[in-house]
Write a structure and sequence with these properties.
86 residues, elongated, 4 helices
C-alpha cells in the first residue's frame, strides 16, 4: 500500500482524531479511505445519472410496465418441454 502525507488545519485534524477515538474508525487512514470510497461512489452515481439522462435525451428508453416484465420472464424462464427434450 502506498503512503500519502496530507496537511490539515488543527480543527480538521482534531475532528479526524475524534472519529478514531470514538471508535468510528480504527485509524485516521481508515477514516480517510472511507471518505475516498464514499466520494468514488458518489462520482460513479453522478456519472451513471449523466449517462441515463443522455440516453433519455436521445430517445433510448422503454416504458417498464407489468407486461414488459412478463415478456422478460417468458424469455428467460426455461419451458418445461425444453427441459424434457435435452
Amino acid at each position: 500500500m502506498s503512503t500519502v502525507n496530507i496537511s490539515l488545519p488543527e480543527p480538521m485534524k482534531d475532528f479526524v482524531e475524534s472519529q478514531v477515538t470514538e471508535g468510528m474508525y480504527g485509524s485516521a487512514s481508515d477514516y480517510i479511505r472511507t471518505l475516498i470510497r464514499e466520494d468514488q461512489k458518489r462520482k460513479a452515481q453522478e456519472e451513471l445519472e449523466k449517462k441515463l439522462l443522455a440516453a433519455l435525451d436521445q430517445g433510448h428508453f422503454q416504458e417498464v410496465t407489468p407486461e414488459f416484465f412478463n415478456q422478460l420472464r417468458a424469455r428467460i424462464t426455461p419451458k418445461k418441454n425444453d427441459n424434457n427434450n435435452g
